[in-house]
Amino acid sequence: MLAFSAVIFVFAGWLLFNRQYATDQVTVWAYQPPTEIQTIEERVAFTDNGKFHFFATQPVISDADSFNKNCPRQETGNPVIGCYAMGRIYIYNITNQQLDGIEEVTAAHEMLHAVWERMSSDERKRVGNLLEAAYAKVGDAQLKERMDYYARTEPGQFHNELHSIFGTEVANLGDELETYYAQYFENRQTVLNLHQQYNSVLVGLRAQAETLATELQTLGGSIAASTNTYNTDIAQLSVDIQEFNSRASSNGFQSQAEFDRERAALVSRTNQLDQQRVTINNDIEAYNAKYDQYQVVAKQIELLNKSIDSIEALDPTPSL
Hints:
320 residues, mainly alpha, 2 domains, three-stranded mixed β-sheet, elongated
C-alpha cells in the first residue's frame, strides 16, 4: 500500500512539472487528422517530435470566413495565411496551384511557434542568442522589413517569429541551429525547397514587373524628349520653308545654284524629320507592347495576392 502511494506521489510530481506534455499527449491521442493535414505532415517530413507538436495543436485548414475569425488581420495590405492562436494552428486554404507548398511551409512555421511556447526560459535564451547571431549575418532588407512588421504587430515576439522564419525559409544557419532544427524536421531542406518553390513564383513576377516598370519609365522619358525635339524642329522647318517659298516667289535668290543649295538643305531636314517620326512611332509601339506585358504580369501578381488574401476572398455584401 505504501509503495502504491509512493508511485502516485511520484506520478503527481511528474505531472505537475510536465503538465503541458501530458495535455499534449492526450490531445495527440484523441486527434484524428483529416486527409489534408496528413498530406501536409508527410510533405513537410516532420520528425516524430515535430509531428507530435504539430498534431498537439489540432491544426485545421480553414475557408476565409472561419479563418478570419480565428486569425484577424493586423495591418491593411499584409494578408495573414496562418496563425497559432489559443493553442491551435489555423491555415488558410490556398488553392492556387502556382503557390503549391505554401500551406506546408505555413504549417511548419506555426508548428515552430507551438515549440517556442513550450520551451523553458533557459532554452529560449540559448536559441534566441543563436537566432540573433544568424540574423546579424543575413543582412536581408526584406527580412528586416518583415521583422519590423512583427515588431509593430507583435511586440516582444522577435525571437519567436525569427525562430519560425529561419526554421522554414533560411538555409545554412550554422551547425548549432541546424542541429537544433533537426529535432523537428527529418530533412529541413525539404521545407526549404517547398518555400523556394512558391516564393520563386512571387519573387520572379515582382522582379519582372519592376524591370518592365523601369524600362517603361526609361522608354517613356526618351519618347517624350524625342517628341519635344521633333515638334520644335518641325515647327522651325515649317517657318524656314515658308521663308524659302517667299524668297523664291519674289526672286530673292541671287542664282539658281543658291536656290538649289538651300532647297536641298530643306529637303534633307525634311527627310531627317520623317525618319525621326518613324523612330518615335516605333518607340511608341514598343512602349505599348511593353505596357501590355506589364499589365499581364501585374494581373498575375494581383491574382496571386488575392489567392492568399482571406479578406479579398469574401463575397461583397449584396446591395439593395
